Amino acid sequence: MKRIRKAVFPVAGLGTRFLPATKAMPKEMLTVVDRPLIQHVVDEARQAGIEHFIFVTGRNKGVIEDHFDYQFELDSTLDQRGKAKEQAALEADQPKAGEASFTRQQRPLGLGHAVWCAREIVGDEPFAVLLPDVLVKAKRSCLAQMIDAYNAAGTACNIIAVEETPMENISSYGVVGIGKQHAKSFEITAMVEKPKREAAPSNLSITGRYILQPEIFKILENQQTGAGGEIQLTDAMIRLAKDQPFHGVKFEGQSYDCGSKIGFLTANVAYALDRPDLAPAFRAELKKLLG
Ligand code: G1P
Question: Can you tell me the distance from the alpha carbon of 287 to that of 289, in angstroms, rounded to the nearest whole number?
C-alpha cells in the first residue's frame, strides 16, 4: 500500500460569514490564539507525517503563500535582537523548500472542484484532504488516527473522519451510513451531502478530513453540480464508493467548526485554556466575565 505523503488544503472560499474581517484577509488567516487557522491544520497534517502541502487558493489569498514563506527581513531583525527562540519557532512552522505547492481555483465552483484543481500536483497516489474551517483538538492528530485506520484496513480504501452530531444540525453536513465494524473503522454504506433530517442515514457527520484514492480525480472531472449548485466532493465519493471501499473513523478528539462564529470563538477559548503560558490569567478573566 502506498504511504500517504501529500495533503490538499482547499483555501479558496470567500469567507462571507466572517465579513468584514475577511474583506481584505483570507478567512484561513483568522487566528485561534496566535496561530492562523491554516497553520493549525498544517500542524495536524505534519504530525501525521505529511511531507507535501498543497494549497488550492484563489484571488486575495496571497498572504497564505507569504505566511508559509521564509521572511528574510523578519528573520534578520529577530537575529539582531537576539530572539533565537522566536526564530526557531518560525523556522519549525515553515515548510522546507519544495514542500509546499500552490495552485488556484479560478472559479468558486465548489469543494469537489477545488480538490480536482490539485490533481496534477497530487499525481497517481492516495492523498489527504483537510478543510481548514474545522480544527480538531486531539492528543494524536485526527489525520494520524485516520492513517492508523488506513494501515489497519490493509486495502487501498478511502477514509473519512466522522463524528456524532445532534440531529437538529445534521443537515449542515455530509452524513454517512454505518456498516460492518473493523478494528479502527467501520464500512460506510451511504453518503449524503446536507440531507434533510428525515433523510439522514445516521447521526454521523463528515468532519472535513479525508484520505482519498487518486481515482477520485477522474470522477471529479465529470461531476455535475449538486447541493447548493456546487460541484460536491461528497457526490464524487458516492460514485467512487461503487468501485472502492470507504471507511469511517470516529476519531478521538474535539472538533471546532470555525466556519461558524460560535465554533470559532469556542475554539479560541479551548485552545487558550490549553496553553500553560495563558491559561491561569485567561481563566481568571473568564471567571470575571461570566460573573
Ligand atoms: C463540507 C463538506 C461536508 C462536511 C463539511 C465539514 O461542507 O461538503 O460534507 O460535512 O464540509 O465541515 P461545507 O461546510 O464546506 O459546506
Answer: 5
Centroid of ligand 1 to alpha carbon of 2 (angstroms): 27
CA–CA separation, 175 vs 173, rounded Å?
6
Ligand 1 centre and the CA of 206: distance in Å? Answer: 7
Whether domain 6-290 has CATH 3.90.550.10: the reply is yes
Kindly state if the Cβ of 10 falls inside 6 Å of ligand 1.
no
Question: Quick check: CB of 131 below 6 Å from ligand 1?
Answer: yes
3-state secondary structure of 259: coil
- Dist. CA 134 → ligand 1 center (Å): 9
CA distance 263 to 64: 22
* Digitized pLDDT (tens) for each residue of the chain, 291 residues in all: 789 999 999 999 888 899 999 999 999 999 999 999 999 999 999 999 999 999 999 988 999 999 999 999 999 999 999 999 999 999 999 999 999 999 999 999 999 999 999 999 999 999 999 999 999 999 999 999 999 999 999 889 999 999 999 999 999 999 999 999 999 999 999 999 999 999 999 999 999 999 999 999 999 999 899 988 999 999 999 999 999 999 999 999 999 999 999 999 999 999 999 999 999 999 999 999 998
Amino acid at the residue 121: I
